[in-house]
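Lecture notes, structural biology module. Today: joint structure prediction for complexes of two components.
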Amino acid sequence: MSVILDAGKIVLRNDCPIEDAEPLLVFLQNNPDCPIDIEGATNLHAAVLQVLMAFKRDLFGRSRDSFLQEWVVPVIAGHAVSLT
Amino acid sequence: MDELVEQFLIEGRELVQQASDDLLALEGNPADAGRIDSAFRAVHTLKGSVGFFDFAPMADLLHRAEDLLGAIRDGRQPVTKVIIGALLDCIGASDDWIDSIERTGALPADAAIVARGLGAAMAPYLRSTAPVGVTASEADLEWLSGLVTRNRDAVDTAGAGRTITAIRYTPSPDCFFLGDDPMALVRSIPDLIALEITAREAWSTEKFDPFVCNLVFQMLTAVDADAARAVFRFVPDQAIIVETQPNPAAPQTDLRTAVAEGGRDGAVRTLRVDATRIDALADIIGELIVAKNGLAHLADKASAVDAKLARELNASQANIDRLAGDMHRAVMTMRMIPLSRTFQRFPRLVRDIAGRLGKSITFHVSGEEVEADKSIVDGIFEPLLHVLRNAVDHGIEDAETRIAKQKPTEGLIQLEAKRTNDQIVISVTDDGAGIDLGMIRRLAKDRNVLDAAAVDTLDDSAALDLIFAPGFSTASEVTDVSGRGVGMDAVRSAIDGLGGRVVVTSARGAGTTIQLSLPQALVINTIMTVRVGDEHFGVPIESVQETLRIAADRIVRIREGEAFVVRNRTVPLLRLTDLLGLPGATRPDDIRVLIASSGDERIGIEVDGFAERFDAVLRPMQGLLSGMPGILGTALLGDGQVLMVLDLPGLIG
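The predicted structure, tokenised, for the full assembly:
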């Protein structure tokens, strides 16, 4: 699984396939203020993307993937993009 | 079969139908922009669904047809008879291929060759596709101007004067179930200048379903429309692709292509249900009706014990009886579909047949809104096609003959349906040569359909009826169109099988009418077969209360008659041979009896044996036999034999 709950953050890593959408949704619903670490994410399936868009949490880190960083991060970031 | 293929077969047929309707209408009125749009959308969507499968020749051919329709729509190509013909050929081939996919799961072996030939026929009209200004509707462009304005800087950076293609991609909500990842698709677009990801509908975090795709992607890319279309080739109906050049500031004036989103119109509120499910429901209701009959019996028994309880049971039984009846009718209505389902296939087929025979024909259809049971609507296709084929081939004369007879050169064939009481009457009328009775009589003799003396005694209408006799075909030469070894006898037996009748009337020189009368709904009866001697008869299962075996010595003679005792009741016994006036045989030691009810009485009927039960459409007797007492009608057995079905209460008298 490429989505885990780690030390108060939801951490996305590597290629996040459609199977990650459901656990991610559960994490977000159960942890209302929990920020998301996308530093290790290299790809998001559209299903994962729309979960992130719907919940808009604060983000940690810059994605290593330039496509994600350039086009996707702006639409999933909450109030601020916090840098580590 | 794969669910996706099944869906494709259903939709594919509808789209083929839509396209062919539109094209035929365009042939009559080339200026009908609505029809052009509709044909384009149908072909476009069909091409899109073909893209899901490995049917490359079909996809290629439809792609060309779509291009040609696009050229017509954009005013780059006028509508001509030749072009409509070429397009109809493509649609016809697609129709055949869909049949082949249903049968074998694949295109026929010659599909690639056929597609190449048909594609070549369209090629000359596809070359002159010089771009002209296209005005798409305002609504189509609202997103576009917004997208370009918001991303003006990025566009400028990419280089002014370059080709910019704008894409609005709305993945279908169920795309995840089809294995699509819209993100992967968007990522594969080369030279991305701008990407905006938004929600199709506002997000709801409470009732969020991550597996319903709610995304809209709007993009600008520096590649041309063809390259962008290549990326979306499997979901062409989900992407609007607009190429703007060279000045992106005013995209409206420079549109070269605007691919409209397909399949959004036609908001008919219907639910598609598999016919077998409706049939299953009908079966359950049939059983419910039988179970309900048990209640009446129960009420009878109760009346001996408690009159009040019996009355209440009776009232309740009447209620359930009414509801079960309503339910039965409701299910039967569900199976009712308009004749248009079958009729709409004919204009193209008639045109096709006429084209092959070099005849020019006007074909009128009316009454297609009349409804009938699905099995009737489906069942009349083959026989009607045969009748129409005959009308074109043998009915309508060739052009020279028609001119010589001072008839319009175009032949007229009318297909008409009407409802009269419980029947639907479908007629095919042509204004052709009519049927030559002399020739009918001669052919009937030559082909030994009847012996010569019998033929001579027939009156005209009976002689005309000979065309339905097995082994009779009026075609003196076998043609490509009609000469397929089936004659009008096949039409008659098909219509008989549906519980209908077919008659022919004809006036020499003025034309022929073939009239089919059919029940609106099939009435299926369960029939039990009984044997007396070597003969078999049918008995509707409702009229049989029970079947018994009793020893011959239990039968007692009471004056002229016979009776036996079953469950403390004396039941009179009649022999079926006596009722039917058949010779009786000696009685075995162990006799078989069926108990029928006549009014309140129970009567035993002695038979020689019971055979299988089956479901059949009961056909009432025709002509002289129609009033015969004791006979309900006939039922066609699976092997083509006809079984006489007895009316037991009528026989008992």
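Point to remember: The CA atoms of residues 53 and 199 of chain B lie 29 Å apart.
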